[in-house]
Amino acid sequence: MEKEVSIGLLGLGVVGSGVAQLIENYQDDLKHQLGCGVRVKSVLVRNLEKARSYDIDHSILTTNCDDVLNDPDINVVVEVMGGIEEARKYILQAFQAKKHVITANKDLIALYGPELEAAANENECDLFYEASVGGGIPLLRGLSDGLVSDRIQQVMGIVNGTTNYILTKMDVDGTSYEDALKEAQELGFAEADPTADVEGLDAARKMVILARLSFLTNVELDDVEVEGISNLSLTDLQYGKQLDYSMKLIGFANRTNDHHIEVSVQPTFLSNKHPLASVTDEYNAVYINGEAVGETMFYGPGAGSLPTATAVMSDVVEAIKNMRLGVNGKKFVKPRFQKELTPMDQRYSQFYLRLHVKDEVGAFALISELFHQMGISFERILQKPSNKDELAEIVVVTHETSLAKFKDSLAKLRELYVVENVESFFRVEGDAK
Ligand code: NDP
Ligand code: HSE
């Protein structure tokens, strides 16, 4: 094997600069681990004139993708440019040229992961994407290698740093949603257009990747039910505090039996007893329950230049080690099971519900009678005296029930004349822990 492996970067932004920096700063450590050096030979960028946060030799920058994709010296291509169609085209081109590909692009892997894995396999190339979920947390390899002999039942993740930062600020400091989002943008956690963050799509893409690895089935983005945090109110967060809950945007991937899975992203009231409740600010964490291992939790920085670059570099090192052994082309995910989604009547959780009701005798009795008829019992009840509109505010937390039954109850509740409005409802998790 050569004394030095040449790498081509597609992109030199937040993550690309981190990768170039790690390769320079830890060259001796990489040599020690690999028995050869690693160098960045060419870097594709959009704008050659742009000032760079990392001081790199500008002669290796190019705006011509062929300088990376068609250079026979380059064995490993690192895609950290983002976007979908162009990135996909370049990655497929890299495989045709027999280059191994590392990417941090969760959007691309969530949409085209199976197609890209097949192309990598056909060309006996590696495709790794450790950085696509949880930034610097060594998570995907932890799942696919560390828990290979286990059967995973449940994955619950805080996988979007922006929303966790916003919720922490709203919950702890009482900051408004708008101000907290602005802070997250200024700190660089949010995407350029933060819609994907706050509407839950970024988390949904990451949950697709986690669910594929956990359940060995081809989960797609359309299978994920997604709800973001843009409509949350401080009122609910304050009630949550009284109930000893923290509001989190949680990605769920649950397996009810071998073949039925549920993947969703939703704002959730988490009991403060649950280990994920203590994950604050921009941090990410993924809680995994396996048949054999029991509970485990992976925690760390979900974004940022150097943390994300460490995940990219773990993939680069893996690809180079595989080159040495001549074993490239193994899939990260080998689908095994037919996909079957869990029907609503088999999806169980507790629920938080906030109602505005007419402040009159018998109103609460009518509501509790309805829930009684539906077979749903209350675990906790809070009631605020009527306001100037003569409406009382009632908050209930139900015992565990199926989603189908809860939705039926909501429909019936809206027909009761005493119910002025169903203000909000959220999934509740972790009370039983
Ligand atoms: P940036 O926007 O900071 O950087 C993108 C880089 O790619 C820039 O250098 C840009 O060039 C270059 N680029 C983009 N499009 C093109 C194109 N069409 N042709 C040539 N060059 C192009 O992105 P990030 O580094 O933040 O993110 C990169 C990837 O990593 C994304 O997929 C993102 O989702 C993922 N990721 C990011 C994390 C983070 O913390 N930022 C964490 C985990 C994953 P130029 O500099 O000239 O504009
Ligand atoms: N916008 C993303 C987040 C970046 O906030 O988690 C890391 O994927």
Walk me through the structure.
This protein has 433 residues and is of the alpha/beta class. It has three domains: 4-136 and 305-325, Rossmann fold, CATH 3.40.50.720; 148-300, Dihydrodipicolinate Reductase, domain 2 (2-Layer Sandwich), CATH 3.30.360; 344-429, 2-Layer Sandwich (Alpha-Beta Plaits). 36% of the residues lie in helices and 27% in strands. The chain is built from 14 helices and 18 strands. The chain has helices at 14-25, 27-34, 66-69, 85-96, 106-122, 140-146, 161-173, 177-186, 195-198, 201-215, 234-242, 305-325, 363-374, 403-415, and strands at 4-10, 37-44, 61-62, 74-79, 100-103, 127-128, 152-158, 225-226, 245-255, 260-271, 283-290, 294-301, 340-341, 348-358, 378-384, 391-398, 401-402, 419-429. The strands form two sheets. Strands 7, 8, 9, 10, 11, 12, 13, 14, 15, 16, 17 and 18 form a twelve-stranded mixed beta sheet that branches. Strand 4, helix 4 (85-96) and strand 5 form a beta-alpha-beta unit. Helix 5 runs parallel beside helix 10. The mean pLDDT is 94. It binds NADPH dihydro-nicotinamide-adenine-dinucleotide phosphate and L-homoserine (HSE). L-homoserine binds at residues 135, 160-162, 189-191, 197, 202, 302-303.
In short:
The protein has 14 helices and 18 strands.
